[in-house]
């Protein structure tokens, strides 16, 4: 019977928490589907039948009133041009991943801005531009954020703008290009006259599946950042084999796409300015030279980066270092006649547009172009129509010609380009309403371009200054294209307000359900904290509400709305049913109001302040400092109130524990990484610092002290020390409850300590592997050593979990003679549940320790010890409250002594955020520590690699805190035993677990709900996808991870309770 009751109690808690997880999942899915929608992708394809010859027709006599007639005259449907005669029959497009602009610019001998690791190493492009400026062109290549590879490949082939939500697909193998693109158009043009070859980053094989010929397609894994050379070696071999016509390679190829990864991997592994970058850029430079020597006159060579990298070698955001890629085009024949390239500058001046930008590391104005501009340029150079969804403008330097001639290629190209954009805008406004507000402006720009073009035709046919008229017309078309791009860019994200509102409503409902769990878990439904009756009542009310919601869902489905909206309505009904039925319980519960003493009010206030941060972009950017201040405030308040305890022991112990935990968090917070927006007030300390800070090193002055993304040797050594002494610290804490002997000693000393030391050894081997002093053979051995270390450690962690599951409780039975009688005492009895559960938390901590980099290992340990101190601190505070109530025995009992208060729970939740930031994370893509995907592996291995990256980020934030908050409920809880009169008194541990878990989820639900509300509120803000969208995404992942972790922790407590029941006969109700 007792076993059944135990299973019912903990099973009911897990079931109720699973219900909340389902509500969270539905709410987040709905809001996300409405908030992060992809832009409308049109499936249209540009169709074109090139005319054998073309000349500008005569304009209408009355140009001003005949613009419609002129528009029809030059329309492709009436014989107007839709492409240009091809200049090249072959293309070599070589992407050097993360090739930043300053990596290829010329470096003067006396340059004070140059860094010898990255500047002046790849010199061939600049040398050829200087030697033959008419056949070699180099510029700054501005990427549209997010700067992830998948988004860049889409932009480089379709000419369309990226969408934020697709950044996630970059790491999941999704994202095949469905839109019209120049590769497909070129394939259609050449037919079967020659194969399309590809070698390099396997993202291409996914994105452009079927466009390359399988016999000349050599994809390589793109995620192994530890491997700096394999992909580049393959690119070198295959590319030169094709270009030089080596045996076994076809000689009639038409397209060669190569994508090198070595530069990107050096950046991710070591940072931008690192000695390992020197040989890598040198290798790229030699290959450029070999490729130039191998191409013929009909081949166009394009070499560029898909994006740049910041100072730590990462990318994904929109800082100048991340969006500023390098671009170089080369041909054996000139792009235009000598001197004609000056027309490009005149064109931009005439259009009132800037063709230059400022790059942080290179002084002076730099010629710049948008990455999507490559699409119309390359299409027209190859003689194909411009892809239908393109918003880029042709690059004048690659299509320049004598502007004084009637058939100059640049004006013809811009006319074709603008017509294609005009057609796209027209079709887009039919499919979506977001550009309609700019329709009048774009119509006026188009009419201005037609007017200028008609005057050009008049100058050609009736005499006049053709060059001036040509520049006017070209400038007007360019202005139209850029205006269309700017307006589309401003409204590129569409929002589904119904789904967003319904998602928020479900999250609000989940918050209400959690509040019901919090308030009713103390007295339940029958005056006792028994879970079973409460769970039945909650399930009944939820089912009733679900039926009502189901009726509404049926109506929604009948109207043709989506299934997800129907599910959302049912979820709202379930939540409303639970809240409505138990609202009275909440309102009349005296416990609720009596609990609002000052300390709990502080906890509620802190949670509210944290949630309100997202109303300000500045406070959101500085969340790492704010949460540190909040946890300091809450711990100081607890210390002050502890000074008012009724015993001298508690008066000293509570403040000491509070201040001790605060000092641990404060020490951990000295480690941090900085957001770009925090410059110049943030000093990063997570990675090794450079010997000489260089404020010119990055556009973010904080990076001047960041150095490369390598670990500090001092932190590697300190991690070893921490790994050795952390188990001793845990044993010392257990000694306070006499639970450090027996299983605890063996488990911590002979399992946890070796695991932690093995994890430190892995990162030591990783550090050694990156040193320059080794030859390749030694480096290979070090790679094997660190891989073996990680695998042994992972196996040991699994073994530790298994041993924990079958090990006895942390008890020592001691017999002694007292007055001639044998007396048995049980050491550790008072903390039976807590000590057993603590051992499991040490296993979770050990796994996260392995997945954290050395600085993160140290800070994670400090935060973990603070979490354990929280359990002891909460127990002492409950003792103090119990003594307060004991003074007035006739007074009302507001809470059982074992029930943690919200201030305790808020401390743990806040501590998770401090741990998140202290372990080298921020709510930005660039802070994701991708290298942890390769702990124990040399390449991406599913599902371990993505799981390790997620645990590295969310483990300190919510997984470890979830187990820590459950520890509050079981710490220093002595089990009951059967008496001579009958069975043991029931233990209401399950009710305490439900209350504690609900409070923890209330905190995270409130924060996530706030991030969603303010993301929706600021949906048109300039910084939406830089600040609020990433923060909402982090909040959503955190909330789901909290749900899952809490359920797992409850299951673990149930296992400890089963051991306790078998040992003492305890009853859990």
From TrEMBL:
Q: What are its GO biological-process terms?
A: GPI anchor biosynthetic process
State the InterPro entries in the record: Alkaline_phosphatase_core_sf (IPR017850), Phosphodiest/P_Trfase (IPR002591), PIG-O_N (IPR037675), PIGO/GPI13 (IPR039524)
Q: Which residues cross the membrane?
A: 497-518, 538-559, 565-588, 626-643, 702-725, 746-765, 794-813, 833-852, 858-874, 895-917, 949-973, 993-1016, 1037-1058
- Which coarse location class describes where this protein primarily resides? endoplasmic reticulum
What GO cellular component term, any one, is given? endoplasmic reticulum membrane
**Pathway terms, separated by semicolons:** Glycolipid biosynthesis; glycosylphosphatidylinositol-anchor biosynthesis
The membrane topology noted for this protein in its Swiss-Prot or TrEMBL record is: Multi-pass membrane protein
Its family remark reads: Belongs to the PIGG/PIGN/PIGO family. PIGO subfamily.
Know the name of this protein?
Mannose-ethanolamine phosphotransferase gpi13
Q: Which organism is it from?
A: Malassezia cuniculi
- Organism placement in taxonomy: Eukaryota, Fungi, Dikarya, Basidiomycota, Ustilaginomycotina
Point out the gene that encodes the protein. Answer: GPI13
